[in-house]
Amino acid sequence: MKGINVLVLCALSALSQQAAYGDDRLAVELLSELVAINTAPSGGNDLRPAVDLLVTRLFDAGFDDDEIDIVRSGDKLPNLVVRLRSPQPQREPILMMAHLDVVEALPEDWTVAPFELTQSGGYFYGRGTTDNKAGAAILIANLIRMKRENFLPDRDLIVMLTADEETDGAGAWTLANEHRALIDAEFALNTDGGYVMLKSGRPRAFIMQTGEKVYVSYRLAATDRGGHSSLPRADSAISRIARTLTALDEFRFPVSLNETTRLFFERWRELAPAAERDLIDAVLAGKSDPETSASLDDAPYYNALARTTCIATQLSGGHAENAIPQSASAVVNCRVLPQFATTTAMSALAVMADPNNVTLEQIYPDRPSPPSPLKKSVVGPITEVASEFWPGIVVIPEMSTGATDGLFIRNVGIPVYAVSAIAEEPDEIRAHGKDERIGVEAFRTATEYWYQLAVRLATPN
Known about the structure:
6-stranded mixed sheet; 19 strands; globular
C-alpha cells in the first residue's frame, strides 16, 4: 500500500468493519496505490507501473493470462483489457471504461501532496481521485470481488483502462479500431462522466452522459509587409485578426436540441430554480432571438448544451514593439453539436475571416460522435439501481460539453453511457483543479452502485 498515509489506514479500518458495501477496502487500497503512481507529465507519462500493479492484483485474485490483455499506444502507454468470462454466454458482452492517466498537478499549488491519497474532512484528496483513477479502482475491485464470489454472468464483462485519455485518446482509438475483438460489446458503461448531483448535500439528479460535443480547432492567420510603427496603416495583421475575433465574439450559433439535450432540459426544468425556467422554456421552444441569446450568455452551461460554441483560446502577433506586425494569428476552439457537421462551424468562421483578408485552417481533426440511443434495456437498469441507492432520484441524460474516450467507442458503433455515480455538488467539482477530491462515502457508494449494476445487467432475467 505504498503512498497511503495514516489517515487513509484509519479509513480502511473503518470501511473493513462495515459489511453493507462489499469489498470497498480493496477499492480504497487500489485508489491509494494508483494515486501514488504519478501518471501525469511530471511522472514521464509512464503508465507501466500502474498497469503492472493492477495486473499483479488480478493474477493474485485468480485471473488467467487469457483474461488479461495489454495493448500499447506508445512505449510507456499500456492499455489494459480484462475480461470476466461467462461460462455460457447468452448475450453480447458489456464494456466498462476508465482511464489511468491524469493531468498535471503542481505540488506547490496544492494544500496536500497531489500524488498521495490523503483523507481529511470526509474526502479523499489526490490527483485522479475523480478523474479518473476512482473509476479504475472501482472497476478492478468489483471484477476481483466477482471472481472471489464465483459470480457466473450470462455475458462477458470487459474492463478497459486506457493510458492517454487526457491527451490524444490514442489508446481508445487503437483498441476500437485495431483490436475491436478485445472490447466488442453490446454497449459500454463509462466511469468518466455523469454524476449524482447534490444540492446542499441532498441528491437531486442522477446525470447519465449519453453524448458529447465534437471538438475541433482552427487557426486564423493574417500577414503583412510590415514597416515602421511611426508610419502606421489602418489595416495591420493584428487589426485584421482583431476584427475577425470581434465578429466571432458577437456571433451566436442557433439553438438546436437532440434527443439527449431535449430530455435533459425537460427533466431538469422540474428541478431548476424558478428563475431559470423561462429560459429553459425558450430553449425547449428552439428560440434563438436576441433576448434568449443574451440570457444564454449569462448561463454558460445551458448555452453549451443548447448550441455550437466557438471561442478564441490563443493569440499571437508582431515581432517588435516599434514595427508594424508582419503576421498575427489566433486559435479558435469549437465544440460542435453532434447533430451537425463540423463544416457548419468552419463555414461560419470563414464568413467572418474573408472580409478581413484572414486565412482559415483546421488544425485539429474532428471526430464526430453520435449520441447513444436511450435504450430501455440499458437505461432501465441504470435507473432501477439508481432508485435503490437514491430513492426518488430523477435520471437525466446529458450531452457532455467536453470529450472522453467514449467518443472513439461510439464511433465504431458501440453505444456509451457514462454513469460515474459519484455524488458531488456542481460547484465543488475539482477535476483537473487544485486539491482534487472525492467524498469517502461517495466513493464507497459508487463502488457498490457499479457492482450492483453490473450484476443486474449480467444476470439472466
